[in-house]
Design brief:
By secondary structure, the chain is mainly alpha-helical. The chain has helices spanning 4-11, 17-32, 51-54, 57-78, 83-113, 125-144, 149-168, 176-183, 185-219, 221-236, 239-256, 267-291, 295-303, 308-338, 350-359, 363-393, and strands at 36-39, 47-49, 120-123. A hairpin with a 7-residue loop joins β1 (36-39) and β2.
Length: 396
């Protein structure tokens, strides 16, 4: 027969169901899926290793505090939601995230010690799923804590600093992902620089072409209909197909005018294709932003003696800027992702590393290209989000 304390625990309602669901998935990932994989070399599929089977003395020393953090989060799911509790849950999730990384690094170092130099210890599916769910717990708790802007920035900075210290201190060097980075550091840096070059070179003409087209479409509905039909048609083309369609004409132009440096593969077709993809959100954002400016405001500006140029730059454009920034935010993230595919036509960038890993069935090499792309997309999105918030807080 259950004790009174056990009966009270069973009757305790789950007051934070989102947190409880995330924790249930986190425990299932840690206990039911491989935490690490061990392979004799980078080209062979590794053997999945469960977390409990990997723990030794040092591992248990790290796992015990993590278990305590999980217990705290489980208790928080049963407690009434309060700002202080949410803040404490966010801190606990950050500690759990850093602890999982440290545990993976320590365990990988122990596994690598008895293996050949070709052996690879990779992060397993259980680790990646647990990391994702832990980040979800952290983000959810931080949002519910309703912290100030600088407090949230400080929390993110502290978490990133802790992860950076783990990397700088060599705690994760035994993982295959870090070994791939060490073996290809110069190639990685060149690919990262090339990826940024592709993105910036595509966004610049998209803005130079798209913004005037958006202004024209906002004031001329007869122009807007065929223009948006054309741009929507370009968006429906798969990226590979658009890259392929550009190879033939550019190669022919390169043969017709050899002194111009035109060619069907490389940076030029990639930039043209990405520019075409970026035009629709830029043009639509500019046109939508201008169209939502109240007519009464423009009439008032005219009554104050402003000419059309002054009305546009001093009234219409500032009021349209929030919508335009949202469109630019979407466009930039889209171009960062699509630039990966440009590697298939010789443009280079991080996509070259990704496809090289896919061709050689080296998952960690794929991740070496994927993770920076995700990081760049998140950084671009966060940068535009910060700019939008600063614009919203700016006095009129």
């Amino acid at each position: 027969m259950a004790s009174p304390a056990a009966r009270r625990w069973r009757r305790q309602p789950v007051l934070q169901p989102v947190l409880a669901l995330l924790l249930a998935g986190l425990l299932a990932a840690l206990l039911g899926l491989p935490f690490l994989t061990l392979a004799p070399n980078r080209l062979v599929t590794g053997q999945g290793l469960a977390l409990l089977g990997l723990l030794d003395g040092t591992g248990w020393a790290l796992a015990a505090p993590l278990a305590a953090v999980l217990a705290f989060l489980a208790a928080a799911a049963l407690a009434p939601p309060r700002r202080a509790l949410h803040a404490a849950s966010a801190a606990a999730a950050a500690l759990l995230l850093v602890g999982l990384m440290a545990l993976a690094g320590v365990t990988a170092a122990r596994l690598s010690a008895g293996q050949s130099s070709l052996a690879r210890v990779s992060l397993g599916g259980g680790f990646w799923l647990a990391l994702l769910l832990t980040w979800a717990v952290y983000a959810d708790a931080l949002a519910r804590a309703a912290l100030g802007r600088w407090q949230r920035a400080g929390a993110h900075a502290a978490l990133l600093l802790a992860l950076a210290l783990l990397l700088a201190g060599g705690a994760l060097d035994a993982l295959s992902l870090l070994k791939e980075f060490a073996n290809r550091q110069a190639v990685f840096q060149a690919a990262l620089w090339r990826h940024g070059q592709i993105v910036l070179t595509a966004l610049a003409p998209a803005l130079l072409i798209g913004l005037p087209l958006g202004v024209a479409a906002a004031g001329r509905p007869r122009l807007a209909r065929p223009l948006f039909a054309l741009l929507n048609g370009i968006q429906t083309l798969p990226s590979i197909a658009l890259f392929g369609l550009l190879i033939g004409p550019l190669a022919w132009l390169g043969q017709a005018w050899p002194g111009w440096g035109l060619q069907g593969i490389g940076l030029l077709p990639a930039v043209i294709a990405l520019t075409l993809y970026a035009l629709l959100p830029v043009v639509h954002g500019m046109a939508a932003g201008l169209q939502q400016v109240p007519a009464a405001v423009l009439d008032a500006a005219t009554g104050m003696g402003m000419n059309p140029r002054q009305r546009f730059w001093q009234v219409a454009l500032p009021l349209a800027l929030p919508v335009l920034l949202s469109a630019l935010r979407l466009t930039s993230v889209q171009v960062v992702g699509l630039a990966v595919v440009a590697a298939l036509i010789g443009a280079g960038g991080l996509g070259a590393i990704i496809f090289q890993g896919l061709l050689s069935s080296a998952l960690d090499l794929v991740l070496l290209g994927v993770l920076p792309v995700v990081g760049l997309a998140l950084a671009v999105d966060a940068g535009f989000g910060l700019l939008e918030r600063r614009l919203a807080l700016r006095p009129a």
